[in-house]
């Protein structure tokens, strides 16, 4: 599968609806290349996009 094929699939709601919740979780957990890609901003955006109200991200250094 080419990058273009993957992105076309990813952007097609009808095709995405064929994936099970477990499939989506597996993709989500594997898609980022490394830990440095997981940032406070990314997590806050994710929480906001999914309207999760019972979680808060705090950065510890």
Share of residues in helices: 40-55%
- N- and C-termini, Cα separation: 39 Å
Order of helices and strands: HHHH
Number of domains: 1
Query: How many strand units?
Result: 0
Using the CA coordinates, give the radius of gyration: 14 Å
Number of discrete helical segments: 4
Strand content: under 5%
Averaging pLDDT over every residue, what do you get?
92
C-alpha geometry = extended
Unreliable sequence segments? none
Can you describe what's shown?
The protein has one domain (3-49). With 61 residues, it is mostly helical. It has helices at 3-10, 13-16, 21-30, 40-49.
Briefly summarize what is shown.
With 61 residues, the protein is mostly helical. Helix content is 52%, strand content 0%. The model has no long low-confidence stretch (mean pLDDT 92).
Question: Helices, strands, pairings?
Answer:
Layout: H1 3-10, H2 13-16, H3 21-30, H4 40-49
What attributes does this structure have?
mainly alpha; extended
């Amino acid at each position: 599968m080419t990058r273009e094929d993957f992105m076309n699939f990813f952007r097609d709601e009808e095709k995405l609806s064929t994936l099970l919740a477990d499939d989506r979780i597996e993709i989500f957990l594997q898609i980022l290349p490394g830990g440095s890609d997981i940032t406070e901003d990314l997590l806050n955006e994710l929480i906001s996009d999914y309207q999760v109200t019972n979680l808060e991200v705090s950065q510890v250094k």
